[in-house]
TrEMBL record:
GO MF entries: oxidoreductase activity, acting on X-H and Y-H to form an X-Y bond, with a disulfide as acceptor
Highest rank taxon of the organism: Bacteria
Record keywords: Oxidoreductase
Taxonomic path: Bacteria, Pseudomonadati, Pseudomonadota, Alphaproteobacteria, Hyphomicrobiales
Protein name per UniProt: Glycine reductase
Pfam families in alphabetical order: GRDB
Length: 309
């Protein structure tokens, strides 16, 4: 019998698979001269808190890694270069009854394939309010919470996660939707989700970095195979954003146990070539790598100044 070709069998290309962000970022930083590999948080089991109330009676909070816009902190607009000056280093909160301008210029989202023009792709407050009005959830929590994107596991686990838990308890939150953007963001919210869940608050992570979230072993995870920065749906596509949050809430409500991952059926595009680009050191020249090292060092100095301020 003649062999059947991949084209005839209908197989997808081998690289049309979730990006391995842990390896990709390790290789990238090694290529620009940082030879000590970062250790990603790794657990083999996760805490699990079933919803204590039906979803339509539950108070739901959003936890975000986006930062409030501050015009004094440089370019934070759509397509802005990585801006370490816009980072924040302490948990913050915001009144969900008000409008908020949250941006992601301070983190390493996919600047090649998305431009951060629509905050609905990383901050699903409008969609959550819509679901509260429709009776799908009981209510939106009075505050949302900002989780600092921190490379230090210790600071996230010992300082930031307990502070977010305290504020959730103060607001009588039943469950939280956590929305990361960059690779380290995905680790940060995974650690926060674990802490909340271990202390009685149900969680679901909505994210685009499958390997990082599953490596950290979270209770519930909705994976969208989109470029980083689009964990809550496609830009300028309200239907996509609505579907993504609704699916995340179904995972929150119906997951049978910890480490439940559900993949969204939505595709970014029919062409998966975008997956080859993010922090791909193999595609960069020596000159480009040297330039990126200089830029990264400069941003580190800016961030260091903010941490000690």
């Amino acid at each position: 019998m003649a062999a059947v070709s991949d084209d005839q069998s209908g197989f997808a290309p081998d690289d049309d698979a979730p990006i391995g962000y842990m390896k990709r970022t390790r290789d990238y930083y090694a290529a620009i001269g940082y030879t000590t590999p970062y250790r990603w948080a790794h657990y083999t089991s996760a805490p699990f808190q079933p919803l204590k109330k039906p979803l339509n009676q539950s108070r739901i909070a959003i936890i975000t890694t986006a930062a409030p816009f501050d015009p004094a902190r440089g370019d934070q607009g759509p397509g802005a270069k990585y801006n370490g000056g816009a980072k924040f280093y302490a948990v913050y909160d915001g009144d969900t009854s008000e409008q908020h301008d949250l941006r992601i210029s301070h983190i390493a989202y996919d600047r090649t394939h998305t431009t951060a023009t629509d905050s609905g792709t990383w901050f699903p407050l409008a969609q959550l309010k819509r679901l509260a009005a429709a009776g799908t959830i009981g209510e939106v929590a009075p505050r949302f919470f900002g989780a600092p994107t921190n490379r230090s596991h210790r600071v996230t686990i010992e300082t930031d996660a307990p502070e977010i838990l305290k504020r959730c308890r103060d607001d009588k939150v039943d469950a939280a939707v956590l929305v990361p953007n960059c690779p380290v963001c995905h680790q940060t919210v995974s650690l926060v989700a674990r802490h909340l869940e271990a202390n009685g608050i149900s969680t679901v992570v909505m994210g685009c970095a499958k390997d990082i979230v599953e490596h950290a072993a979270v209770p519930r995870f909705l994976f969208s195979d989109f470029p980083l920065g689009n964990s809550a749906g496609k830009p300028q596509d309200v239907a996509s954003q609505a579907f993504t949050l609704e699916l995340a809430l179904r995972v929150l409500e119906s997951a049978p146990g910890p480490q439940t991952t559900v993949q969204s059926p939505l595709r970014w595009s029919e062409d998966a070539a975008w997956k080859r680009d993010y922090s791909n050191a193999d595609a960069l020249s020596a000159e480009e790598l040297a330039r990126l090292r200089r830029e990264f060092d400069a941003q580190k100095e800016i961030a260091k100044g903010l941490r000690v301020a």
